[in-house]
């Protein structure tokens, strides 16, 4: 039977540390503050925002909401970002994306100062990930994968690792992080020939393709570690990951569940970035 790598356990450990650090900042007269920028009333954005606010409250981070109509112009959105950039009481920002069609994503995300980019969306922040330099912060979900490995004492050094997905949000950043930790990394994508073979030969698998249950039990083997980043809805309307969790559960491997896995850790990583940003101003 599979060993479950619970994200809730990782989150509890991170939050305990964050609460102490937040309290120390408050004693120095500094309240860590996160700005959340949302356009419109998209259900997914609202759900993510509520989850982030709940986590922020739990660890002593203030949240300032900036809500614009979905029809807002690019200049209106840029004006909000300029305000956040100039406000010294705001230590970091989270821009809820994707933006509507009238907004140019690259222009807007790069208008945010890298030191206030809490989710690694600016070109400067991503450059920091790829060059291993302290510029901005890494994407929270990619860093959450590393937090899970670290919490459970899994050292990726020397491990044959397959990353499924090549997005700038997860696939490419997590590949760079794993390379930095001396893993041997293969990135799979839609043009990969015989993806099942690449998955089966790996010791560590990061599933981040955004395709429900695409990693089936026959692609896996005993002894593997599977970090499932996917958040999808299956044909029955149930939340599921990129791996077939129920089928994989019959194998002797270690796996993160969905829900209750990497996604649970992501918001705690976000709060860690805000607190780190506040600490840097001491």
Give a quick summary of the entry.
By secondary structure, the chain is α/β, with parallel strands linked by helices.
Which topology of the largest domain does CATH recognise? Rossmann fold
* Helix/strand order, N-terminal first: EHEHEHEHHHEHEHEEEEHEH
Average pLDDT number: 96
CATH superfamily heading of the largest domain? NAD(P)-binding Rossmann-like Domain
- Stretches where pLDDT is under 50 for at least 5 consecutive residues are none
> Which CATH class of the largest domain applies here?
Alpha Beta
| First-last Cα distance | 49 Å
Q: Helical element count? A: 10
CATH architecture of the largest domain: 3-Layer(aba) Sandwich
Counting helices, strands and paired strands, the structural category is alpha/beta
Spatial arrangement of strands, main beta sheet: 1-11-8-7-5-6
Describe the structure.
This protein has 2 domains: 29-114, 3-Layer(aba) Sandwich (Rossmann fold); 140-263, NAD(P)-binding Rossmann-like Domain (Rossmann fold). β2, α2 (43-59) and β3 form a beta-alpha-beta unit. α2 packs across α10 and α6 crosses α10 (262-279). It is α/β, with parallel strands linked by helices and 282 residues long. The longest helix is centred in the N-terminal third of the chain and has 21 residues, at 7-27. The mean pLDDT is 96. The chain has helices at residues 7-27, 43-59, 74-86, 105-109, 123-131, 140-151, 171-180, 195-200, 245-248, 262-279, and strands at 3-4, 33-39, 62-68, 92-95, 160-164, 184-188, 204-207, 225-228, 232-233, 239-240, 254-255. The chain has 10 helices and 11 strands.
């Amino acid at each position: 039977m599979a060993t479950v790598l619970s994200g809730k356990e990782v989150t509890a450990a991170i939050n305990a540390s964050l609460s102490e650090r937040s309290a120390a900042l408050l004693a120095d007269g500094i309240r860590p503050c996160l700005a959340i920028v949302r356009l419109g009333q998209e259900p997914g954005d609202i759900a993510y925002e509520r989850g982030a606010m709940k986590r922020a409250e739990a660890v002593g981070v203030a949240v300032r909401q900036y809500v614009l109509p979905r029809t807002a112009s690019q200049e209106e959105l840029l004006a909000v970002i300029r305000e956040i950039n100039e406000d010294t009481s705001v230590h970091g920002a989270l821009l809820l994306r994707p933006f509507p069609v009238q907004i140019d994503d690259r222009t807007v995300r790069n208008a945010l100062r890298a030191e206030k980019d809490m989710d690694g969306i600016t070109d400067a922040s991503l450059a920091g990930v790829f060059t291993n330099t302290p510029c901005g912060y890494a994407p929270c979900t990619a860093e959450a994968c590393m937090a899970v490995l670290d919490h459970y004492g899994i050292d990726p050094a020397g491990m044959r690792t397959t990353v499924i997905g090549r997005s700038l949000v997860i696939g490419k950043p997590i590949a760079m992080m794993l390379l930095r930790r001396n893993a041997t990394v293969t990135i799979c994508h839609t043009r990969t020939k015989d993806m099942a073979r690449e998955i089966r030969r790996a010791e560590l698998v990061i599933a981040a393709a955004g395709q429900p249950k695409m990693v089936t039990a026959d692609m896996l083997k005993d002894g593997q570690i599977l970090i499932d980043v996917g958040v999808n809805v299956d044909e029955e309307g149930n939340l599921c990951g990129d791996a077939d969790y129920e089928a994989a559960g019959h194998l002797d491997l270690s796996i993160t569940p969905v829900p209750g896995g990497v996604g649970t850790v992501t918001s705690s990583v976000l709060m860690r970035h805000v607190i780190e940003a506040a600490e840097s101003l001491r």
